Amino acid sequence: MDNADHGWNGNALMARLNLRYSFYHHWYLQAEIESIRIESKGESKAYFSGVYAHTIDHEVLSHQLRSYLMLGFSC
């Protein structure tokens, strides 16, 4: 019987900054910045017919950055 044993560990961080400035009657300027970081590590051990075959080490690192600037009007 084929079998696999997995173990994962990791963490994530998300930060967001949103600014809004009203400057002339109903007009405003808005800006937002968002950052996400994900880090994870793991290990998979494979067994074939109950006998250890091999180990695979996994590592995931993701960093994303998003921003926008908006000019708006509200009544």
Q: How would you describe this structure in keywords?
A:
three-stranded antiparallel beta sheet, 75 residues, mainly beta
Description:
- By secondary structure, this protein is an all-beta fold.
- The chain has strands at 3-24, 27-48, 51-73.
- The chain is built from no helices and three strands.
- It has a three-stranded antiparallel sheet with strand order 1-2-3, with no helix packed on it.
Short description:
This protein has strands at 3-24, 27-48, 51-73.
Q: How many β-strand stretches?
A: 3
Distance between the termini: 69 Å
Structural class: mainly beta
Q: What is the arithmetic mean of pLDDT? A: 91
Share of residues in strands? over 45%
Q: How many whole angstroms does the radius of gyration measure?
A: 24 Å
* Helical content class: under 10%
Shape: rod-shaped
Largest sheet: 3 strands, antiparallel
| Low-confidence sequence ranges | none
Please provide the ordered H/E string of secondary-structure elements. Answer: EEE
Number of helices: 0
Strand order of the largest sheet: 1-2-3
Present the secondary structure layout.
Elements: E1 3-24, E2 27-48, E3 51-73
Antiparallel strand pairs: 1-2, 2-3
